[in-house]
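Thread: Newbie trying to understand structure tokens

Hi all, I'm a second-year student working on a class project, and my supervisor (Dr. K.) asked me to get a predicted structure for one chain before our next meeting. I've only ever worked with sequences, so writing a 3D structure as a token string is new to me. If someone could post the tokens and maybe explain what I'm looking at, I'd be very grateful. Here's the chain:
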Amino acid sequence: MLTQVTQFEHKMSKLTLKLVPGEGYKTMSYQPGNFSSYWNFSFSSLHSKVSFEIATGKVEPLEDVGKLDFVYSQNGFNGGDYDTDEKVTYYTFILCPGEFVEGGLGVDLTYDNTDGYTLHTELLTGDNVFATEAGKEYMYTVTLNKTK
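---
Reply by user tm_fold:
Sure, no problem. This is what the structure looks like when written as tokens:
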């Protein structure tokens, strides 16, 4: 009997945002006006499609970079992974390896509730750049403060 060993390697990049409730949030409940896992994300300058060759493990971006949206709504899919011990919400995104965004990756966070506000931040992996490598995870802690 011939046995073939298959080698597996992670070829994509992983971005994890840890959202922490800051000042102005009463609880971590899912009620309107409180901090929850109903945040929508918009990333600037990323590839939304890739080509993946199974035989070689080669991943290549397709098309031009553009805005990439991830929408999570309390009326539909709940995309945040709420950690009851830490009282934080994790969002995980799989990205194309080889991304390179000069000046940092722009992220808009829009809260899906009656308040309807958007926050903006920049993510960096190095000196004034956001770049991804195959098989690597990038984790950012984002503390959100609600002010009026």
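A couple of things are worth pointing out once you decode it. The longest strand covers residues 13-21. The CA atoms of residues 11 and 50 lie 11 Å apart. Feel free to ask follow-ups in this thread.
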